[in-house]
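[job 4417] fold queue: 2 targets
>>> target A
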Amino acid sequence: MKKDYSSLIKKLKQYSALAAPLIGAATAANAQIVYTNVQPDATISKNQQGYPIDLDQDGTNDFIIGVIDTVVQFSDKDYFFHEVLADPYNDNSVVATTFQSNGFTFVYPIYFNKGNVIKPELGWNNAASQTMADFQGYVSTNGNGYGSWNNVTDKYLGLRIKKGSKEYYGWARLDIKASKDTVYFTLKDYAVQSTPDTAIEAGDNGGVPTGIFQTTTNDIAIFAYENQVHVSAPSSSKGSMLIRLMNMQGQDVKVYSVNQNQYQFTVADLPRGLYMVSVEQEGTIKTRKISLR
């Protein structure tokens, strides 16, 4: 059964910024692996929502993992789809196998165990709507499962990002559940080898110890969405926030001082490109790179 997900994937990309909780980026001391710990773990279960992955923390999303939880009608009968999809942006790729049926090609990402090597020689695919887990069928039946990610814990997705002529290899660790009654995924962490054309082991975080460099829920959140920059601090925080939007040369573009814990401002009047947002409150400074496209 061929499914057209083009409109759903578009919605996933629109919703992804709002669905993403706080993340903490940690770079190993050897500067070869960029490691990001998602704190707290991000669980997505709602239809047409997803979580973006900025694998190398450069301010540009490289992949999105999304959920499809819907019921449609075939032959006047209700038919359900419970799916988790991987969608690469641009020329990025996922390690996957392909299956052909009735003239259609289906792409199924494979999972890696901790310590497996993610390398250039594997089967890479940059198709959209790659099916990690799929459970579907008529509501009146038990349904059937497809994809190797159905009901797995602590498995690794092989990822590759392309920048110019260079390619960088990484991983993302997830739990996934897809059954007749439910569908969701939990993203825990991800990492990329910053040396081009170099393999990485699944789970290799460059030597960052557990509990180090992790962002907690008592932190300042910064993200850009639809020409707006959103800043929020924990409700327990006191004092004003100093918000600075800077270009990549460190020059102030916009500066705000506000006596509230949530604030947003427009960037629709600015040229496209990379910027830095710095927020200071109670002696704590949080800086994040954002991309305006």
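>>> target B
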Amino acid sequence: MSEQFSEKPELLPFQQLQQQLSNYIRDPENRAYKPEHGLEIEQRRLDIYAELFFNNLYGLFSQVFPVCKAIIGEHRWQQICREFLVKHNAQTPLFHELAGEFLDFLDNEFSPQPTDPEFFLELAHYEWVELVLSVSEEEDLIACQIPWQNIDLTAKFELSPLALPLAYQWPVHQLAADYQPEEPEQATTLLVYRQCAQMDAGQPVSNIQKDSIEFIELTPLLYQWLVALNDHQSAESALEAISQGLELDQKALQEFAKQTLQQLMAKGIVSQV
């Protein structure tokens, strides 16, 4: 049997030129653009284009990850944005999806410095979730007002696609330039959701409020229950699954579950299937 070798095809001349130009734009300090005679670009124009390209990316990431930038500082933030540009091969040209590419870069290609905070990746993920929810085209659940005593735990409930239960090692919702705690002993569990703006009939367009991204702090048990809701045939079976082995008053637990569902249904976060 003859061996087969897979080699990358040699780039055509125009592809080599494109590659050389893109390498320079990504990393102008360490890459050169030196095409054949007649294909040169004035250095001033090259530098303007490279700067515009970087500034667009820098501006986008600064807008999506403002707390990350504030905590890590201007100089280091610029370094990280440049490192993304040099190392990461983005798979999308869409600006709102590039934030997800940045998160992938932080998780797989980023070279942190000793002075970078340990919570940096988690904080970036939390800020990215806010973007994902704000641009999501998923339909909102209809808010429902119902007395908690009338809620049937044997029914199946599901979370809104615009509500995400999240668990972090760090208190990402509290982190700021002036608040960077030591490693906490207990995980942070949150429900992050998009709160739809209420719109009354006849309300002037100028007075219509925008949707907002909100969060609710959860206990670890409540977090586990919300995660389990979609995978169980009833709210009751989900509750039983996460409370096994715990010495809890079942009647009090069920009343708490009903009251919690009532509050979440009123916000359009949970609905009965």
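[job 4417] complete. Note on B: The first helix runs from residue 13 to 26.
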